């Protein structure tokens, strides 16, 4: 057999999986269709929020603790800054998904946090214009991950540990036969015992027969020069934030990092697409929409546009990840940890995928990511 495990897709998740597998002495082949840390998938854009009091559900909190530990280890081993702790402010109505969910997670796990009334938010963070009655929850363990550097660090560590990583080599088909898998690219066919599929927005295409209920969503990200001063939005005075600015509508942003300006985007609400059909160009209408949200909630932030890009979310119907085996082939492992909030978990997802490939099980709580829960949705799509 050529390899123990082949990893398809070396973005956020695949680069981490390749590292953890190689670190355990596996013969690993990683195949990526584009270049290292490219900007065509879901892991580009210079920054990602990480936080601990997780509004998407208290069940994620133990995974976040381990993810942060692993990011910190990787940062130390690589000597490159991967993580900057800025604190995080979760804003919105007390019973909304963001504030209500953050509080539920913080309380369930006894996480340190501060609850700020609207007037206190405006006093401590005058950049925000927050409605009376809304709250801010300050999560001091939140901050920024630098995604391209994280991927480069995982890929370099994987290579050092003996993994063979091949770039610009798209996988065109794969087949599992008994206890082996055959993976074909434009260049050749490879054999392994186990296959780990981490194809991000391309997951549906690689698993077309499974009819996974995944929807790819276009997401627009903008960087603005603040109208007042960059210093007012520097990380020492302005944390990462997520704000429910209208019922069920969420936007988020980062402090001004380096020369980039302030990065902001809506969380969901983008148009449905595929990696082939996505409108990669950012239009004036896209920018107008984001600027209007800024003007209402962070009035001094929306100065000149510095840059803008598009990125893809790969959403499940319930917003939780898929990490499981292919129900037809126990030696094929699927990872689609996205729905717009997966990057911070990439380090621990790599560990989980290595556990599943090497030991057939993991100590981490991944029951909520089982495919089974989405079976009804997949069947409905088939009709
Ligand atoms: C704009 C935006 C903002 C986000 N903000 C946050 C945030 O603040 N915090 C957070 O935690 N998460 C955030 N997310 C979500 C997070 O970035 C994603 O969950 C994560 O990056 C997904 O990683 P992935 O490895 O699944 O996908 P990707 O990184 O896209 O990797 C998939 C890889 O598979 C490769 N591939 C696909 N098909 C093939 C093939 N046939 N052959 C070979 N290679 C193939 C692709 O080229 C790609 O490199 C955000 C996402 C977006 C788009």
Summarize the structure.
The protein is an alpha+beta fold. The chain is 27% helix and 29% strand.
What's the alpha carbon Rg, rounded to whole Å? 21 Å
- The level of helicity is 25-40%
Distance between the termini: 40 Å
Bound molecules: flavin-adenine dinucleotide
Percent of residues in β-strands: 25-35%
- The tally of beta strands, per DSSP, is 20
Topology pattern, helix = H, strand = E: EHEEHEEHEHEEHEEEEHEEEEEHEEEHH
**Which secondary-structure class do the elements indicate?**
alpha+beta
Q: Specify the number of helices.
A: 9
Major sheet summary line: 9 strands, mixed
Shape: globular
Given as residue ranges, the uncertain stretches (5+ residues, pLDDT < 50) are none
What is the averaged pLDDT score? 96
Can you offer a commentary on this structure?
With 383 residues, the chain is an alpha+beta fold. The chain starts with a strand and ends with a helix. 27% of the residues lie in helices and 29% in strands. It has nine helices and 20 strands. Strand 19 and strand 20 form a beta hairpin. Helix 1 packs across helix 8 and helix 2 crosses helix 8. The strands form three sheets. Strands 5, 6, 7, 13, 14, 15, 16, 17 and 18 form a nine-stranded mixed β-sheet that branches. The chain binds flavin-adenine dinucleotide (FAD).
